[in-house]
Request: fold
Amino acid sequence: MPPRKKRATSAKKNEMKESEVKKTESTSFSTNNNLSSSNSIEIKNKDSTIESISDLPGIGPATAKKLTESGFGTLGSLATVSVGELVSVGNLGDATSRKIIQAARDALNFGFIPADEVLERRRNMLKITTGSASLDDLFGGGIETAAVTEFYGEYRTGKTQIAHQLCVAAQLPRELGGLNIDGEEPLKVIYIDTEGTFRPERILNMSKRWEGDVDVKKVLKNIMHGRAYNSDHQMVLAEKAAQDSQTQRIGLVVVDSLIAHFRAEYVGRGTLATRQQKLNQHIHTLLKMAEVGNMAVIVTNQVHSKPDMFFGDPIAPVGGHIVAHASQTRVYLRKSKGERRIARIADSPLLPENETVFAITGDGILDVG
Ligand SMILES: Nc1ncnc2c1ncn2[C@@H]1O[C@H](COP(=O)(O)OP(=O)(O)OP(=O)(O)O)[C@@H](O)[C@H]1O
Ligand SMILES: [Mg+2]
Reply:
């Protein structure tokens, strides 16, 4: 095995953040209690007598089993479910559902927390390298976990290529910009493919530059591919991913593309409300999964041209306000000369609106040489 290269970005090392988090003295409680705490956001547990959903009032063994099978097997998932949803999935009464949700929230100390604690939680987040130092710099170190990042742009701007590259990069060790810890079971990647453009051959090509750092023979085994044939199927796959994330270690979920099916199926003004409602539900599933499981969620999006724009770039992502609000970071990709592409931070709660150039090559996403 060749010696490990240093990560070629100016990113703060994920490792450092971990050790800082470990210093906290509070009883930490993983929202995703089936997983190693190294992949979960730690939330202070107010009531240490409640450690799993079976400890909650009103949940017997049969209900616990049923809830776990429906994807509500953790305190975190019960603390964030709506009463209506719990009534239907758990076959429980309204009052019992409210009691369970409240108890889960109390156990996890949900509600308002001081901002220094928010900062502490954010330190537990990880960043996945894109493979290009300039792109990583643009993102403040890489693609964040516990958030939804959206890449939008015209056709052939590199959305699918970046999604493929991240599937490999996520499998790097943490000190090189991935999510894995030496000696622990590797994290899995889920790829929801709505356009049939996932290419395992491309993943293998992209893995070669990290030979020795990622296990090239296992890199495909760690990526679970789901081909979504329509929007309902896509929603089911996302829910399945959320459910699987409670029993398996999943670090990255890709949805390529987020909107294509919704756009094709709901045509005309009359269907817009239904489309947005479904899309909202789908995005909510992704957002919650990202935050509760400390996973990176990457979605790609198409663009449309705004006819009423007389100044500036008329290209805008589709999906309207619903997608805009759910994606924490929105990245606009444009073509440049040859293999060059331009990435621009179009919206972020933290990052400035900068842009940078990168290249799509046979080996994947690289800095411009
Ligand atoms: N093996 C390769 N070697 C070099 N460049 C490649 C390779 N495969 C793909 N590309 C580059 O990637 C581009 C396609 O990018 P990608 O598939 O990510 O586009 P996209 O933004 O997902 O487009 P769409 O909206 O059509 O899905 C190609 O035009 C080509 O320039
Ligand atoms: Mg694509």
About this structure: The pocket of adenosine-5'-triphosphate (ligand 1) is lined by residues 153, 155-161, 197, 360-362 (CB under 6 Å). The radius of gyration is 21 Å.
